[in-house]
Each structure stands twice: as structure tokens, then as C-alpha cells.
Amino acid sequence: MSLALAVRDVTVELGGRRVLEGVSFEVRRGEFAALLGPNGGGKTTLLRAALGLVPLVSGSIEVLGTGPGAAAAAVGYLPQTKAAGTSLPARAADVIVAARRGAWPLRVGAADRERARELLARVGGERLVDSPLRGLSGGELQRVYLARALARDPALLLLDEPFAGLDERGRAEFLELLSGIAERSELAALLVTHSEAAVRRLADRAVLLDRSLQAWGTPEQVFERETARAAAWSGHDHEASRDARCEDDA
Amino acid sequence: MSDLVELVASPLGQGFMRRALCAGLALGAAGALVGVFVVQRGLGLVADGLAHASFGGLALGLLLGASPERALWVALPFTLLIALGIQQLRRRTSLGGDAATGVFFAVSFAAGVLLLGLRGPRGGPVNLEALLFGSLLAVTPEALAVVLLVSLAVAALLLRIGPKLAYATFDPELARLSGVPVFGLESLLLATTALFVVVGARTVGVVLVAAFVVIPAATAQLLGRTLGTTLVAAVAMSLAGTGLGLVASYHWNVAPGATIILTLGLFFFLALGLGRRR
Question: What is the ipTM of this complex?
């Protein structure tokens, strides 16, 4: 099976600080992979590097058989922070048409509107097609942006914390949606999330990242490794506090 | 009915009023288009800031020995540099557009005062007011030709790059991924704004040029539901406000800048009320 994403010995620095170091893993075509790890562990940076938005210090990233920037048209991206507060008059259809054209529409014609409606229908947001973005709930916005990510029929989907900011019901609904997308065998996806339930439900494989690669395998293997790491850290803290007490006693 | 026609037509019997109307409509339409894109970027004050900053360039031109008319050719590149400086400051620091504009505006204006002082007595007196504030009623045929040419060029450019510029405003990162040259387009917008305000301010004054950029765009934003309708509404309101304001100024014998701005302001508050009722 060919690769959708190949990350090879990647090191990235931001503002003089090393954010990723020697990271390597692969996502095959048709595979749904999860990217796990603590805040500040480099997950978003890795997605941005895969899109060509962040330069690499060393290593390489291959996206759909080519360099990161060159494959951008075939990659759907759901960013963590979404634009919704600009003063541009933006409706759901405008956002989707803009992603397809690479330019904001002066007006949305009947054919474009129908295509936007179809994409929104795939994510359960058909009724939102003419809605202004301002006034949409977090869950509705998330559906619009997922439809946008699917607008150019991507072969690889990069999803950065899609459950953030959603209430429990919204998270469950969005998980169902992503589950439906995961079943499409031709689409590969890399999902950044802190939700263990989402990983167990959606992911074929998982990557544990904390600046460097900590684990890579099935979700079960990665969660075992994470539990062991957490236990080791808590043991380390326990040892450290005991040593500190001994020093105090001395 | 005939009284109404007479009311509107009588000012146009005068050559200076016809030139004022042509210059006002051209600058109003182009300013409205510029405004839609700069206001969307949170740069509503940039036109005012650049118009004042151009004073530094005019003063530099005078120090170099140019006549007040020819000093415009020094002010233009000077103001372009200021516009690009504002962009760099926003890009490389955490300062917003208003703070970056404010810094350059004040420094350029102060530099202008210093440069005029350095000319010494041999430079002859300079009418600061005439240097800074043009008058819509004093537009010469030559100035009108420049205004029409610049307004047409600004409008044509913005209608061409507008859709990509708007996408870059809404989501710069995704626009960049779609191949939109985000930095280049933003530079072009600021350079276009600089060109518009330098030419406009010398012809009709700083305050009216800044009003042409901000008020119709802000009004249209309250009403428009798409980029296209927002652009059309901004231009339509600017044209109507300029025409009505100019006719009112003729009959009331007051400064046209004031009546035009007040008419545009009236449209804004009407749109605000309408927007709240929707």
C-alpha cells in the first residue's frame, strides 16, 4: 500500500526553540492515524510542517508522493483556530466556494451553491449553506470547516483538535461524522486529539509525540506505552521528592 | 418636479462645479473600493495616517528644491515606503494596524515639520494649509485628469485582485496553501492605498479622502451579505453621498467636504438602524 504521509527524521525549530526532533512515522493511503501527546509536544507544528507552512531544520516530509507544499491541493486541512470573526461578509457557501476556487466569490452562482450544499450535507450541515458564519454555534462552525476541508476531494485529511470547544453532544455528533469519513477507504487522515475515545473509535494507528517520537503503533500499543510513561514520570517525581526530603533532612 | 431638477442641475452650469463633481465621484468610487478591503483588514485608519504621513514626503521634496506641485513626485514614493513600513511593523511585531499606523503617521509628520524648518529663509514661504488640504472646488482640469486616471487604475486593480485579497484576509494560511500570494497582495493593497490618498489628499483634502475610504465601506459592511453586494453598496453610497453633498454645499454656500462627509455619515447611521432591525 502506498504512503499518504512519510515523516522522516524531522527536526523543526520555532523562535530558536527545538519543537520537533528526529520524528519519523508513516500514514498509509486509506489509513486513519491519530497524533497524540501533551500540549506543546509539537503536534500542530507537525501538521503545519506537512502543509509546508513551517520549514524543516533537517529530515524530510513526503505528502502523497511529493513535497509538502506541492501536494497542498490534495490535502484537506481543518485548523485548530478558525477564522470567523473577520468583518468580511462570510456565509458557509462562500467559505466552501473560496476553498475550491482559491479566491473569495463576489457572488455564489447556482451550481457552486449546489456543490456547497452537497458538501455540507455530507457533514450534516445542509441547512447552513446560506447562513452567515457569525451566529453559528461551535458545532455548526466545525461542520462548515470540515465541509471546506473536503471541498477539493482530498486524498489526505489533516484534522487539528476538531473536538476542541464542542460540548459533549457536539463531540459525540462530530465523532459520528468523522467515523463516517474514516470508513471511506481511499481517504487517509491524521487526527490531532486528546480524546482517547475518538482514537479508539477512529484510528487504525496512533503516534505519540512529545517533541520526539514516543510511540507508534496500534492505539492499544500506544496507550500502553503512554500509561507506562506516565507511571515512570510519577515514579520519577516520587523519587525526586524523596531525594529532596533526604536533602532537607541532611 | 422641475424645481427639483433645477435644484440639482443649476450647480452644474458652472465649470468648477462640474470638475468638482467628476473628481468627487471618481475619488468616492475608488475610495469606497479601497475602503472595503482595508476596513476588512482592520486598517480603517490607514488612509488618514498615510495622508498625513505624505506631508513628510512633500516637505522632503521642497527641501530638495522641487516646487509644491512637483513635490508630489517625492511624496508618492515616500508614502509608499511608509505604507510598506506599516506592513512590516505589523508582520514582525505584535503591534496592530492602528498602532503601526499611528507611529509612522506621527514620525513622518514631525519629520515634515523639521525638513520645512531646515529649508531656511532662502526657500521662501510655504502655505502649509494648501500643501496639506486641497479643495474639491479648486480642482483644475489637469488635476482632474490625474484624479480620473488614478481612480480608474485603482478601481481596475482592486476589482482584479479583490477576490484573492478577500480570501487572504479571511484566512491567510489557507489562502497561502491555495497558492494566493498573501504578502504580495497585502503589499499591493497598501501601495494602492498610498497612491490613492497622496493624489486624493492633494486634490480634495486629507479629511475627505479618509472619509471616502472609511465611511462607505463601513456602511456597506452593515448591509452587504456577500463581497459583491458589499462592494456595490459601498460604491453606490459613496456616489450618492458625493452628489447630494456637493449640491447641498452649493445651495448652502458651505465647504463641500463637510456636506459630503455629513451625507455619508447620515447613510451610515441609517444603515446602522436598518441593520439592527434585520
Answer: 0.81
Contact A104 B163 (CB under 8 A): yes
* DSSP letters spanning B69-83: TTTHHHHHHHHHHHH
Question: What is d(CA A90, CA A87) in angstroms, rounded to the nearest whole number?
Answer: 8
- Residue A158 C-alpha cell reads as 489533516
CB pairs under 8 A between A and B: 80
Taking the CA atoms of chain A, what radius of gyration do you get in angstroms?
20
Which residues of chain A are at the B interface, by a Cβ-Cβ cutoff of 8 Å?
A: 51-53, 72-73, 75, 77, 79, 83, 86-91, 94-95, 98-99, 101-108, 132
Average pLDDT by consecutive 10-residue portion of chain A (250 residues)?
Answer: 90 93 93 91 94 93 88 87 68 93 92 94 90 85 90 91 80 82 81 89 91 91 81 59 42
Other beta carbons within 10 Å of B61:
22
Gyration radius (Cα) of chain B, Å: 19
pLDDT tens figures, B187-223: 999 999 999 999 998 888 888 899 999 999 999 999 9
Closest residue by Cα to residue B156 from B110, B188, B203, B111: B188
Is residue A4 within 8 Å of residue A68, measured between CB atoms?
no
At residue B16, what is the residue type?
F
Contacts of B41 (CB under 8 A, 6+ apart): B97, B169, B186, B189
